[in-house]
Amino acid sequence: MSDPLRRIDALVEEDTLPAPQVRQQLRLAAGLTQAEVAEAIGVKRLAVAQWEAGRAQPHRGNRRAYAHLLRKLAAKHPDAAVEKTSNEG
């Protein structure tokens, strides 16, 4: 029997999203457009724009796919996965 706490941790970690600013930085570092990300996830470009602006959050299924994409991008572009402070520009 598997440990329920591990299953809970896996669910939480699986769909944890970085800050909106970092989401955009990762996409740009990969040279992707919002439309390309939207198509890969199966949503409209406006949804990705709202996620990156912090005005909306993806629903569960889309959230998992988006989190997966962002983790992959962060692995390829670790410098883009850092949240910048306002004075770093």
TrEMBL record:
PROSITE patterns: HTH_CROC1. The keyword Phosphoprotein does not apply. SMART domains: HTH_XRE. SUPFAM superfamilies: lambda repressor-like DNA-binding domains. The keyword Chaperone does not apply. Residues 24-58 form the HTH cro/C1-type domain. Keywords: DNA-binding, Transcription, Transcription regulation. It holds the Pfam family HTH_3. This is Helix-turn-helix transcriptional regulator. It comes from Streptomyces nogalater.
